């Protein structure tokens, strides 16, 4: 990649954002940032008391109460659930961060001895605070309610003692501190202890806000959910402390409100697209806005700006359009780090309906799912109404701000990614296509797996974000965009010949193309009708080969002539020039962070410019 391309990429990231990062790093190196100087004193409990009013009609969540979880999956490690976690030990690898008395800024983000640091952070996101609060409210047995409250206070006290301010891995990230603030606030809201909290709780909040505020501009430089999360935490925690008459609260609340409104306007497009081009990060962002609005209503403070609500409503529609109403699943598009900010029910991690339900009620005044009890439970836990009006978000739509198009025909849905980058892409997924029939994902995105997977049996850091993990075309064995870093691609192309979605003689049609940094071109046209998908991929400008991949749903795929068949599913790929290779190989997908499973991949290779034609038949 040339120096000119690197400069263009840096300019696209934004000179102000780059300056913010440089100032942040320099302030840490010089020891002048307030998050590295004069840490506050450790906090002691108790933090919560028994609730005045029980909610026996609600179903408390079992995850993180009866068993531990990591990234939405149960962890069967034989741990005693009465004993608090080892806060510096990864729930994924079982390895602990060494020397936890070190200041947070001296601990590596990617220590090969520990593995992905997110496995360490998972227990300190305080999902268990919500689970214990729910049990203290809704367990039928009085002794169980008392035990839940005791565990809640004991674990918080242990976490405060073993993670003293500014020491250890759990203070490394301002967003992680922000998630803890939001979960503490949500627990207080459910337990009815916002206006009269136990003394330890405001003190614990203040310690977290003192960690978040000094590095807020670094979060803003990322142009992602770090900024929304940290702004929301400052607003929630600051307004809470201000309502109690405690110092610093009003200042933090004003700053949090300003940046939350700023992030909503900057990072969410008018069509609802979010800056991270990711379904799961979209959920994190939307959950954050929901918690901030719930909190604003709880304290009866001034509404957010009209633009905030416009963008929140549009973001709700974006996610609602991708979620299957029957099982809550959605395409695995973009980076997926296993985050779920409001785990209030025992619904699966990949069930996005509780988020869409809460956001629909808050920002559109209607339910998205009239027949989903778990989604209604999320409303009730947050003391929100369960309104009668129903709002369906599902339709064919173009989300140009985020480079996404959705076409629907009966129970079938096609989702097409195309390059329109105002913000940095995290995956090489240009012209990736997802196909769904009802809640079944027939043509699949690979997901993420891990941000620090190690090299024990393959270079997963390259595979999962790369073009090989997507339903697209790879030219000459390289990526669609050159990789500049762990989370950064360069030479972002622009979409060409964008068309649709639109109805065309009974079909839904989509089309888009691009030309990459080395002159290779790909133009994809899609026709979707009842029981049939047709895709034409025109490729040119490459030197050696163009490799088309279709990542199929797992099953017993068998060759029948030139067709691949799996029960009632049938796929055929041909071309208008000689096909050098047509084969079925094993690929991988990660539907849950830190987990990978095999799936079949159809690969078809051309050595000259031409047109691939794919026909996929499936029952209606």
UniProtKB/TrEMBL annotation:
Per the record, the domain of life is: Bacteria
InterPro entries documented for this protein? Chondroitin_lyas, Hepar_II_III_C
Keyword Lyase listed: yes
| Principal location | periplasm
Task: Cite the Heparinase II/III-like C-terminal domain residue spans from the record.
Answer: 396-554
Q: Could you tell me which Pfam families the record lists for this protein?
A: Hepar_II_III_C
Compartment(s): Periplasm
The membrane-spanning stretches of this chain are none
Establish whether keyword Signal is in the entry: yes
Q: Keywords for this entry?
A: Lyase, Periplasm, Signal
PANTHER family, alphabetized: HEPARIN-SULFATE LYASE
Name listed for the protein in its UniProt record: Heparinase II/III
Upper classification of the organism: Bacteria, Pseudomonadati, Pseudomonadota, Gammaproteobacteria, Oceanospirillales
């Amino acid at each position: 990649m040339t120096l000119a391309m690197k400069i263009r990429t840096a300019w696209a990231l934004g000179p102000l954002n780059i300056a913010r990062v440089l100032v942040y790093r320099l302030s840490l190196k010089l020891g002048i940032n307030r998050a590295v100087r004069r840490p506050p004193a450790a906090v002691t409990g108790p933090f919560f008391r028994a609730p005045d009013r029980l909610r026996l009609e609600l179903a408390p969540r079992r995850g993180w109460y009866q068993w531990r979880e990591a990234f939405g999956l149960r962890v069967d490690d034989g741990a005693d659930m009465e004993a608090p976690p080892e806060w510096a030990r990864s729930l994924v690898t079982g390895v602990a961060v060494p020397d936890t008395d070190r200041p947070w800024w001296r601990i590596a983000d990617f220590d090969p001895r520990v593995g992905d640091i997110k496995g360490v952070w998972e227990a300190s996101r305080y999902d268990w605070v919500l689970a214990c609060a729910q049990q203290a409210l809704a367990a039928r047995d009085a002794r169980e309610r008392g035990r839940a409250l005791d565990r809640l206070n004991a674990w918080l006290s242990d976490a405060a003692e073993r993670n003293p301010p500014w020491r250890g891995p759990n203070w490394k990230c301002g967003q992680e501190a922000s998630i803890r603030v939001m979960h503490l606030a949500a627990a207080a809201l459910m337990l009815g202890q916002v206006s009269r909290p136990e003394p330890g709780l405001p003190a614990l909040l203040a310690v977290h806000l003192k960690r978040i505020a000094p590095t807020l501009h670094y979060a803003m430089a990322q142009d992602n959910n770090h900024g929304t999360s940290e702004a929301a935490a400052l607003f929630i925690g600051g307004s809470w402390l201000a309502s109690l008459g405690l110092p610093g609260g009003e200042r933090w609340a004003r700053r949090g409100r300003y940046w939350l409104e700023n992030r909503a306007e900057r990072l969410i497009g008018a069509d609802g697209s979010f800056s991270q081009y990711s379904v799961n990060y979209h959920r994190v962002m939307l959950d954050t806005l929901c918690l901030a609005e719930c909190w604003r209503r709880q304290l009866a403070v001034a509404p957010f700006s009209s633009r905030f609500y416009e963008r929140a409503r549009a973001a709700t529609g974006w996610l609602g359009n991708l979620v299957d109403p029957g099982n809550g699943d959605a395409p695995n598009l973009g980076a997926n780090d296993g985050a779920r900010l409001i785990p209030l029910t025992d619904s699966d991690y990949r069930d996005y309906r509780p988020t869409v339900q809460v956001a629909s009620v808050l920002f559109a005044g209607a339910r998205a799912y009239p027949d989903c009890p778990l989604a209604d439970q999320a409303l009730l836990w947050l003391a929100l109404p369960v309104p009668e009006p129903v709002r369906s978000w599902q339709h064919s739509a173009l989300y140009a701000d985020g480079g996404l198009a959705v076409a629907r025909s009966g129970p079938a849905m096609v989702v097409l990614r195309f390059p329109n980058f105002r913000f940095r892409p995290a995956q090489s997924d240009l012209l990736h296509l997802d196909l769904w029939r009802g809640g079944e994902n027939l043509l699949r995105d690979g997901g993420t797996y891990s941000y620090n997977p190690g090299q024990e049996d393959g270079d997963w850091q390259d595979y999962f974000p790369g073009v090989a993990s997507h339903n697209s075309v790879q030219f000459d064995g390289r990526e669609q965009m050159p990789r500049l870093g762990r989370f950064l691609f360069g030479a972002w192309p622009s979409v060409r010949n964008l068309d649709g979605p639109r109805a065309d003689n009974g079909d839904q049609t989509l089309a888009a193309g691009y030309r990459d940094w080395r002159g290779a071109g790909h133009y994809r046209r899609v026709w979707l009708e009842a029981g049939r998908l047709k895709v034409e991929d025109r490729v040119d400008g490459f030197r050696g080969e163009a490799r088309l991949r279709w990542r199929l749903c797992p099953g017993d795929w068998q060759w029948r002539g030139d067709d691949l068949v799996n029960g009632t599913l049938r796929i055929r790929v041909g071309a208008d020039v000689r096909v050098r290779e047509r084969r079925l190989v094993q690929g991988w997908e990660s539907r849950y962070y830190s987990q990978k499973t095999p799936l079949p991949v159809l690969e078809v290779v051309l050595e000259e410019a031409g047109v691939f034609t794919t026909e996929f038949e499936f029952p209606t």
